[in-house]
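Lay summary. Proteins are chains of building blocks that fold into shapes, and those shapes determine what they do. In this project we predict the shape from the chain. Here is one chain we studied, written as its sequence of building blocks.
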Amino acid sequence: MGEAYIVGALRTAVGRKKGALAAAHPADMGAHVIKAVVDASGVDPAAVDDVVFGCVDTIGHQAGDIARTAWLAAGLPEEVPGVTVDRQCGSSQQAVHFAAQAVLSGTADLVVAGGVQNMSQIPIAAAMTVAGQFGVTDPFSGSRGWRARYGDQPVSQFHAAELIAEKWDVSRDAMEDFALESHRRALAAIDAGRFEREIVPYEGFAVDEGPRRDTSKEAMAGLRTLVEGGRLTAAVSSQISDASAALLIASEDAVRTHGLTPRARIHHLSVRGADPIYMLTAPIPATAHALRKTGMSLADIDLVEINEAFAPVVLAWAKETGADLAKVNVNGGAIALGHPLGATGARLMTSLLHELERTGGRYGLQTMCEGGGQANVTIIERL
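And here is the predicted shape, written in a compact code that computers can read:
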């Protein structure tokens, strides 16, 4: 088996809800990063075999196979196809997995992988809202098999995050400390210009909008909980956001043929499942699985990106894995930078690659919780 290399990785800055990207058409956001990553590589766009893009709630402007639409909106060759992936929050990390698997199998040589999401235009769970017009209250209602297995337990990310905080005894104070540190790290990275190499300005928008300079423990303490009697607040949750990101994945043959410079190789990729009611705990067994398969430990990993869907997700994962939080989300996470659903996986990998290059680290691990109780894990090796 050959190798799957990352030869390019770029993203837009992340816009906050109703912010700089709110009016941008998702196809144009996707087109922007696709064209940028292909142009930067110097390859003939016609040599690309496929475009795999993640997106959640593919309705409205995100409908109609946004991967294909974004490629065409970029003015690129019509003979190149595209496919849209929905593995919930892990959609664009899965897009990278599918791209790498195509290259590793020898059925493709060059694949653009990434994701796009405009949550300002298409709110989270909008597809379920539309389904309500047809009498469907949620994807699970009416399923005898689901009800026999899980009963009437609520399937909700907020309920799941509360369950995690309770099971792993994560206090509100600890979550707020973690959230405050996420903002501090993100602002430090912005001020130091660490994101500049990975961001392609979109109509002049070039700086992530989410991190808050005025946040404090006192401000967080004054917020109401998301669930009556719970521990979570908006301050310890990921932000609603808009963004797009894209990577170019290449085979060994493509590297030789097109004179490309590999920046990292995909060392490992996998996905695992866990309890869908707890929903957000799968990064724990998924990380253990990836390390077992590779014979590695977290001591071998220089940097980790784990999506901060909610603070207890990361804190419970750290308790179970023994991870050193000094190496985790070193430039902030989704609590500060935002979580544009279908784009987040590619955004995380783009930032992970650039930070490995900046610091000289060798291995980076990325994982994220996903709807249905799932988690992707990717380990990349900087070259």
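What the prediction tells us: Residues 172-191 form the longest helix (20 residues).
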